[in-house]
Amino acid sequence: MNPSETGPLILAFAEFFPGAKQIGSYVGGRLVPGNGDEIQLFDPTTGEKSVSYRDGGAEIAREACVAAQVAQTKWWGMTHAARGRIMYAVGAKVREFNEPLRALSHSLQASPYGIVAAKSRWSRRCLNTTLAGRTSSMAM
Known about the structure:
Elements: H1 3-6, H2 8-16, E1 24-27, E2 30-33, E3 38-42, E4 49-54, H3 57-76, H4 80-96, H5 98-109, H6 112-131
Antiparallel strand pairs: 1-2, 3-4
């Protein structure tokens, strides 16, 4: 997919998974392509088709349950201080990715801010990358 042609949802998704070739489910620390039913999303501002992707399906849901149980066991085995450090780090990441999270949220809610912010951020990234003498490509 070409991020400049697929709209704000893909642009926001690409912030978190820059090397992704398609939308998938994040299971056990990796992005897994779906093998279930195809899901068609629509641009809520225009009603036009936006992005389609395959649902995770039953097998990926089982993998997610196993991964969650493994993670929960590790979490319970940590001290309170270790879990606190992880929660603090999660908060720092949320603050670091505040704009991409906002753009993702707004693109799903049809807010004009989300559409403008995602497109302008992509434009700024391309401009900054071009000015720095690098090519501005993002594999999707």
